[in-house]
Design a protein that fits this description.
The protein has 7 helices and 9 strands, in the order βαβββαββαβαβααβα. The protein is α/β, with parallel strands linked by helices. The strands form 2 sheets. The chain has a 5-stranded parallel sheet. The longest helix is centred in the last third of the chain and has 20 residues.
């Protein structure tokens, strides 16, 4: 854990698959390319047709990832749909070395683990869909899931939302019902929170 600089700022963004958090983060990176850096996660699932290794994820095997976790090389890790996901300390360190604020896009399992690291004081943001029905519509539009994985994602989403709504778990909960409006709230909160932590 010494590798992760305690004074470097970390932004944790969480929300169910389909909540729009990836789109919001893309807009933040596009507007502030010199300020924020994305911590690329590891996963044991296969890449989708558009995904590039090292850019969207580091694609690995379960054996390799389990061994790395045992060696203490991961800040957080989780299992979803029989696939492992996680953030390596090296991925966070790489962003911090560049002088940028490290952004983690992780699920609630990951958030619980990061909260145990008391030396880190991240800004925690939860992105919430307007409703489970709207979330289902968004996931179906993707057409990247089988019916089974879609139902798994919807079940997981309900659990994530329940955790997200517990007072104190996140610094802010933002309902993503309109992308432009949501991004304005998201950006304003993040920038103000970073200014506060500088003082």
């Amino acid at each position: 854990m010494k590798m992760v600089h305690q004074k470097s700022k970390v932004l944790v963004v969480c929300g169910p698959s389909g909540s729009g958090k990836s789109t919001l983060l893309r807009k933040l990176f596009d507007e502030f390319p010199e300020k924020f850096g994305f911590s690329v996660s590891h996963t044991t699932r296969g890449p989708r047709c558009f995904e590039v290794d090292g850019q969207h994820y580091y694609f690995t095997t379960k054996d390799e990832m389990q061994a790395a976790i045992k060696r203490g090389e991961f800040l957080e890790h989780a299992v979803f749909s029989d696939n492992m996901y996680g953030t390596s300390l090296k991925a966070v360190e790489n962003v911090q070395k560049s002088g940028k604020i490290c952004v983690l896009d992780i699920d609630t399992q990951g958030v619980m683990q990061v909260k145990k690291i008391h030396s880190l004081k991240p800004i925690y943001v939860f992105i919430k869909p307007p409703s489970i029905n709207e979330l289902e519509v968004r996931l179906r539009k993707r057409a990247s899931e089988s019916e089974n994985t879609l139902q798994t994602r919807l079940n997981a989403a309900q659990q994530e939302i329940a955790y997200g709504e517990i007072p104190g778990n996140f610094d802010i909960i933002i309902v993503n019902d309109s992308l432009d409006k949501t991004y304005a709230v998201f950006k304003d909160f993040v920038m103000k929170s970073l200014d506060k932590s500088d003082n």
